[in-house]
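Supplementary Note 2. Why include the ligand at all?

Several targets in our set were suspected to adopt different conformations when bound, so apo predictions alone were not considered sufficient. For every target with a known small-molecule partner we therefore ran a joint prediction. The input for zinc ion is given below.
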Amino acid sequence: MPEAPDLVVIREYLLPRLVGDVISSATELKPLVLRNMVGSGAGTELEFKADIADRRVVSLERRGKLLIVGLSGDREIVISPMLTGGLIWCDASARIAPSTVLIFEMKSGMHLRYFDQKKMGQVYYLSTSQRSDIVRLENQGPDVIDEPLSFGDFKLGLKPFRGEVKGVLTRGRLVSGIGNAYADEILHEAKIYPFKKVTRLSVDELASLHRAVYSVPAKAVGVLRERVGDKIHRKVRDFLKVHGKKNEPCPRCGNRITAITANRRETNYCRRCQPGSLFDK
Ligand SMILES: [Zn+2]
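The joint prediction is reproduced in token form.
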């Protein structure tokens, strides 16, 4: 669920609260999400609990769709929420939601909780030197918010790709931080059919795509900053133009928004503003 714009705002909220606080204990409520890369018997909860206790949070970074919590003594927590994961910052006494997977208990009396309805995400616990072992982190392209590419570099970066434009955007190799929702928004803004092959994009389409890739998520950050507040666990998506808007009118032309399920995810687009066909890609 969280894409770069969501995580920018989540990070901004957590930064002054989490950094400086100390983890007194951590509890794994459900298996499969936590990957303990520290120590010999990797994965055992006891080892994880003993190692993480009393470490201070020293930094909080975001890269693409991942958050990296830096801890004292060269440890890190890398959080990859994927489709269904998220974070809650709450008082220790707050009710524990059924989807809660991991709880970091802080000395301040607060909890940082990771929840994940389908347990599709990963939370890695590692030594700083092990960062390069996390393929998902290392294989990411430049960040969509913090590291915009020039048009020249963007075109050059696209060269190795042959697939459909939406798939190239969400894969994260060219640009990182774009998921299903913002890919739909970017392609609507750029007036490009989501299943068009990148090799068939005209120079004008490439220019519109480049502009939209960087303008749409950046604009969303501004909206989310006002809307999310302390509800960092809630996804605010109602302001989007096409994603999740099946059958609603396109804000540009009034045509009904289409939904197509392909590659196990729904794509929303406007047939009039983004003409194309699955048989002519
Ligand atoms: Zn339209």
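The mean pLDDT is 94. The two ends are 28 Å apart (CA to CA). Comparable summaries for the other entries are listed in the accompanying table.
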